[in-house]
Specification:
With 73 residues, the protein is an alpha+beta fold. The chain has helices spanning 45-48, 60-67; strands at residues 10-15, 21-26, 34-36. The chain has two helices and three strands.
């Protein structure tokens, strides 16, 4: 392995949205830094099973639904 081309691999603390923390090794930040998460498996709808809202930007969803309304989906 060539020297001085790889980033430093060190331990940081990760703080979840519910306040719990854990330690992991990473190349992010510096030794002893804390990464605070805005979204994690305890709060994201993909993991919690919550319903997600579909944003209709510029009426695209409405156009799609109208275009394919007769196909019996």
């Amino acid at each position: 392995m060539r020297k001085d081309i790889h980033p430093e691999y060190h331990t940081i603390e990760v703080k979840m949205t519910d306040g719990t923390t854990f330690q992991t090794r990473t190349t992010w930040g510096k030794e002893g830094d804390t990464m605070s998460l805005d979204i994690d498996p305890t709060s994201h709808p993909a993991w919690t099973g919550g319903s997600a809202k579909l944003m209709d930007t510029g009426g695209r969803v409405s156009k799609f639904k109208n275009k394919y309304a007769g196909l019996g989906f």
